[in-house]
Amino acid sequence: MRIIPHIFKNEENIGEIMQQVVFNGMYTHGHPRALIGAMLYAFAVRTLLLQDNVLRYGQLIDILINNEKQWSYIPQLRNIDMWKSEAEKYARYNYDKVWKECVSETKEYLKIAREALNQGILDLGDDTLGKLECYNPKISGAGNISVVISIYLFSKYADNPVTAVYEAANLKNADTDTLAS
Q1: Distance (Å, whole) CA 166 – CA 164
Q2: 66-80 pLDDT, tens per residue?
């Protein structure tokens, strides 16, 4: 909910968008999964806003995979090193290492979504959602996972976005409010 204003304010400057998204999210959702998810979402929305033509089926996911460097780096914010140090102290993990793992994980989830969309009508959405950890109670609702699932549903139902929202809102044992929004 806090991401879209940053895109409209800075749509020509992807670096500024990413800085603002991370700065806005780091104190309430500081885990790399959350911040990477927010950055991926921002990049996806910005991509859609800047389109002059209709994307082909599944093209958004291809764009996201091919532009990983645009949404996957830790922006250089004032005091970011101090903030990461504090996060490491309380979370007891190496922040940069976990960040890299989450980027890799997110890219793999995007590839799963792309593979499913490439199957077209043969895509069994529930199987794909399972592969995307939609129903895993330990990580369901994690930022990167929620964003990839949302992008997958958005792409799958590009010709009927209401169906995408309806499916997301009615999933069993999933973070439906985040996915549908």
Answers
A1: 5
A2: 999 999 988 887 787
